[in-house]
Amino acid sequence: MRISVNGGGPAGLAFAVFAARSGRDDEITVWDRTGAEDTYGFGVVLPPAVVEVFRDADPALADELSGHVADWDRLTVHRHGRSASIGAPRLGAMDRRTLLRVLRRRCAELGVGLVRGAVSPAGDGYDLVVAADGARSVTRGQRAQAFGTTTRQVGVDYIWLGAGRAFDNLTFLIAETPAGPAVAHVYPYGPDRSTFLVEAQGHPAPDELADWFAGPLGGARLLENRSRWSRFKEVRNSTWSSGNVVLVGDAAHTSHYSIGSGTRLALDDAQALAAALCAQPRLADALAAYEAERRPVVEHTQRVGRLSAEWFADLPDAPVDRLMSDLATRGGRLSWRDLTEGRRAVPIGG
């Protein structure tokens, strides 16, 4: 089978690795419209348990990824000059560039074709087209009506920044401003780096944000990389395949960043699609089986993400002890069943 993977992010590259290691005799090409180092963002949440997604298919790759994960098992809330911490399920994160670099190298070692700075030409005889080109997927957009794509804005405006220091664990920093509380979602992803995603009203400049969070930053700089204020857009599709085109990762669905599940969902999609192609001789049956397995987990995670976003948008004026007790269930919006339903527990932050 000739397979075109449109998009060189985690979902597309991971699928290519899984498919190449499956034992099938497929010809796989990944088309990445960006350059090798032309990527955005900072650290992505990648819990140690999620790295095990790769274990059965490629143990050496799992070992290498594990070596790059900064992990933690505590959660901290800081407000009004006070901090409170509790134990939490073990989570982790790694540099997005490093994740992509490792996956690209493994694809090359497995004989996967990698074409950078270009998009897949249309109508050149591929048996399967995997749309892994993100929330703004061009591939999906060419068949938007067939996929039944809908989007809606969730939560409040945010900006994705980095910090020039490694915080100890997942930390929520709350600064009081004339326009209301500003919330920074912070987690380490390297020896001297953290993701620093801020929700606030009025689109303040990074220098102003640095002043608001000066105490917890401890003199560290806020870092920018294609950083801009935006509103999270939840992507849904009524079907994930149309003919020989199938959606994975953010092209198929997005879930709010406050529950830290985007990369996990993308990797699970990639694994499930590769497994379905091995298990089902007919392509249509394989695509149907992939969607049947993944859709319930995804829709549950999206619902949890929406409820989480609502809680952060209406953050109560409460001391850190009260916020800490409310955080796991987002002020009673979520039940413990919500947090544990599905193949893996939904993270409580990130």
From TrEMBL:
Protein keywords: NAD, Oxidoreductase
- Highest taxon of the source? Bacteria
Tell me any Pfam family this protein matches.
FAD_binding_3
Question: Which intervals hold domain FAD-binding?
Answer: 234-301
Instruction: Name the Gene Ontology molecular function terms of this record.
Output: FAD binding; oxidoreductase activity
Is Oxidoreductase given among the entry's keywords?
yes
What is the name listed in the Swiss-Prot or TrEMBL entry for this protein?
Oxidoreductase
Organism listed in the record: Couchioplanes caeruleus subsp. caeruleus
